[in-house]
Amino acid sequence: MATFKALQGDITRLPVDAIVNAANTSLLGGGGVDGAIHRAAGPELLQACRPLNGCKVGQAKATPGFRLPARYVIHTVGPVWYGGNRNEAELLAACYRACIALALQQLQGVQSIAFPCISTGAYGYPAQAAAQIAVEACREAAGDAPLEISFCCFSARDLALYEALLR
């Protein structure tokens, strides 16, 4: 059965099987968590991302973790917030579902996965709504799988949102 926890910290340092990268559609690096993951993984990550030919919003693709403690990086592209009228909630939920499906069905031996707060930085998704979607989508997607799911929050404010939802 899936287990859930929230923590505050640097996702690039977590000793989990897979971390999720809140990437842009090019998968070639960017700011925020995306830039941090690319820097920590080393230049090999960029080289592994090039032949993937990008990623669409709501989908996921995987690479090795290279210099990260995590064996895999699962790249997903969250939606930009436009006020909630452009299917943003469904697209955000699709990110979490796609990452878990990829981890369980295509990656060898993944038993733990850590997610950042997808779309809540530069993409402007409201943190409370995003956290609610993240927790619900992960619970649904993981089902009875023996998977440890961590929500790695950068800020104490985000951590408090996830802790309240996981009670």
UniProtKB/TrEMBL annotation:
PROSITE patterns: MACRO. CDD domains: Macro_OAADPr_deacetylase. Residues 1-167 form the Macro domain. InterPro entries: Macro_dom, Macro_dom-like. It holds the Pfam family Macro. Transmembrane segments: none annotated. This is O-acetyl-ADP-ribose deacetylase (Regulator of RNase III).
